[in-house]
Structures
1.
Amino acid sequence: MATERTDPLTVEVVELIGDVVARYYTEYEQAAAKHSLTGVQARVLGLLATEPTPMRRIAQKLRCEPSNITGIVDRLEARGLVERRPDPYDRRVKIAAATEEGMGTARRLRESLDFAREPLAQLTDEERRGLRDLLRRMLGAGAPAVP
Amino acid sequence: MATERTDPLTVEVVELIGDVVARYYTEYEQAAAKHSLTGVQARVLGLLATEPTPMRRIAQKLRCEPSNITGIVDRLEARGLVERRPDPYDRRVKIAAATEEGMGTARRLRESLDFAREPLAQLTDEERRGLRDLLRRMLGAGAPAVP
DNA sequence: TATTGTTATACTCTATAACTATA
DNA sequence: TATAGTTATAGAGTATAACAATA
């Protein structure tokens, strides 16, 4: 059902969320660029640093077509940050995984994302818990995530 | 200064913010696609629906190179959603503005962005005020915005 | 001289469709 | 036959550099 809330307070909060999103996204791109990575390359590298993943699965997580992953992994592989491994149980499948160097780059990238962490540090534990519960509710209200 | 907060609660909140950003971004792109617009085109149209803007200023707001705006406005103009007007005070400047049709598209686009508004409706006014203040603090803590 | 918008170029990301090698 | 990954293609967004018109 369409929820009708057009009071000034709600409108302001919606706009603020849009601002936070734009800000977060911009800073993520800039952090990636400092490592000579595009935003998408950084996202894939971060994914593979957490867990080696079949090509198709990467596409699902990024919500894009599988054919696009080929090129993205190609470019990461050409820089020695990622490698393709065979799947011992299905010879059609290729599992992309971060190399040692890729793991290091992913870690430095993660640590440089201070935008969210810094202002959060100004909050009390109580406020942080409140924010956490609020965000959970926002995320739980709609479509399912792709884990 | 680098703020060191790596306790589980802060880490979880940072991850949740990342999730909200990803979710917001995805839904924005989908809403734009329903009007046969790319995300960037939708952003520019939304900007021009609020206020006619010189080409260079659009680039500043989007934080990209001015040369890119030419093509984006070209495509919006080809569809009759935007038009270029001369600046009476400086003949070098072209002011991009939404047409009547563009205003309508921008309005429908705005109204279809329910992701943020719906879960927000579940909160009390008190909670909404708390969230607003929190988001303001987050946005105020870092680099200056481009108004 | 400096600035505005544009053009030209190269690269990346994207979806679509067709291909290959496996299953 | 169905699926995983790839290739080929076309469109869009991006940065860089060079250009014409105007300030």
Note: Chain A is about 65% helix and 10% strand.
2.
Amino acid sequence: MPELPEVEVTRLGISGHLVGNKVVGVCVHSAKLRSMVPPELAGVLTGQKIQSVERRGKYLILKCSAGSLLVHLGMTGHLRIVAGGRAAGPHDHFDLLFASGVLLRLNDVRRFGSLHWTAADPAKHKLLSGIGPEPLTGAFSAEYLYQKSRGRKVAVQPFIMNSAVVAGVGNIYAAESLFACGVLPTTPAGSLSAADCAKLAAAIKEVLSRSIATGSSSMDFCREDGKLAYFPQTLGVYDREGEPCRECGGKIRRGRFGNRSTFFCPNCQH
DNA sequence: AGAATTACCTGAGCGC
DNA sequence: TGCGCTCAGGTAATTC
């Protein structure tokens, strides 16, 4: 399930194939994603040259002179560069055909992904305008996290998963970051000390950048059979309920916020 | 008003 | 075989 590192590696992988390349066709195999694929997409994209491929949180932004295509991969979505003419398979929903002969193909088993078109500055689009700082930039700092969390009673895990607080941190990396810095996911955000916030901000940056580094060295988007799945990384706590903690050997426990699971080591996290 | 919580979209995979 | 349940991210809706 793509989180920020997977989206960033996708961006790095597809960017070189797309920038400067002209869209010569749009093929919508299925318009029914989490939100309907905008019907005007073929009309506005055909003939456009991709100027840049950017990322904001978990959104990819394909910038053209007439506007921008926003792509969200949801839980199971992935984008792949494939040879033109290759037949669409199950769960292939959308293709952009390029002048160079390649296709950018969106595959999404569970259809949680979405596509949006905006003619204006994408940063002003309502899906992006309310998003908090990028976690890998200086704007997301210990000081920022400390100030932002003051007075907040919500548990720190859902707090850092709130995209208005910080962009692109999902369930897996939230749990991993909290394990990495020794903070229990149930801790009220407002009760974190300045030192806790410093450790947590550093842990989020470390966990995300390590995953991007791992992913970008192992992915090959040119391969038609290349799969975008979990990066071959070792998870410390996520989905390891009952298994031994890699630090202390104690049992990893599962907790719950609403209908979201969290995983933690009660011995290593306080 | 602003924060916290809940529902919703989807479909694979699971247990029974 | 088939039903009911779970899970995921992010937004909208609702409650507090």
Note: Strands of chain A lie at 23-28, 52-56, 59-63, 68-72, 77-83, 92-98, 102-108, 114-118, 253-257, 260-264.
